[in-house]
Design brief:
By secondary structure, this protein is α+β, with helices and mostly antiparallel strands. It has one domain. It is 23% helix and 34% strand. It contains 3 helices and 11 strands. The termini are far apart.
Length: 201
């Protein structure tokens, strides 16, 4: 009888241990973009230290303006910070958008759109990372237009629709040489397909 009770208690302990382990595993995978942003390597955004990132998050929690004096002694501010989207104005000439993209059968992907404004012309690039900030090959997730022209890239945080606009290149005019007519901007849109874990036209 005692043996049966002992075995029953052991089974309960084992069941509880397995349940707690599963819960911890699910919590470790269900990361918020706020947690991921805090762990962001400084190489991804050299202007922000770990303290700067913590200050932005804490200011939001305390209903304060989401801004911080960055390492370049200017102010960086957040326009938006949710569980899966962030818009960071790094300086007067640069900004970053972070978006957590979910996949049906794989781990979530962090997408970073980095934009630099040169004479009011935006030039953007796009990068992809794991939630631990390991770089990923961008061609796995989308087939972007191949061009050396300037680009504007934006994402709708609600629909995950990505818009890539190739802008007219800068033209140089030399004495006696008239530059050819600049091409019109070309816009491509993509949607995130969770089943394939990639953007598709």
């Amino acid at each position: 009888m005692r043996s049966a009770i002992h075995n029953n208690n052991e089974m309960k302990r084992l069941t509880i241990s397995i349940f707690l382990l599963c819960a911890l595993c699910s919590l470790s995978h269900a990361q918020s973009l706020k947690d991921i942003f805090f762990k962001m390597p400084q190489a991804v955004c050299p202007a922000l230290s770990e303290y700067n990132r913590l200050e932005l998050i804490d200011n939001q929690k305390n209903n304060k303006p989401m801004q911080t004096r960055n390492l370049f002694k200017t102010f960086s501010k957040m326009d938006a910070l949710t569980d899966d989207y962030a818009h960071l104005i790094v300086s007067n000439s640069s900004e970053k958008v972070l978006k957590l993209l979910k996949s049906k059968d794989a781990a979530p992907i962090v997408m970073v759109i980095s934009t630099v404004h040169a004479d009011s012309i935006p030039d953007a690039s796009i990068s992809f990372y794991t939630t631990d900030w390991e770089p990923l090959d961008a061609t796995r997730f989308m087939n972007a237009p191949t061009s050396e022209d300037f680009r504007s890239i934006s994402i709708n945080p609600d629909t995950n629709e990505l818009t890539v606009t190739t802008l007219q290149p800068l033209t140089l005019q030399f004495e006696g040489v008239t530059p050819s007519e600049a091409p019109q901007p070309v816009t491509n849109t993509y949607r995130w397909k969770e089943e394939e874990c990639r953007f598709v036209p």
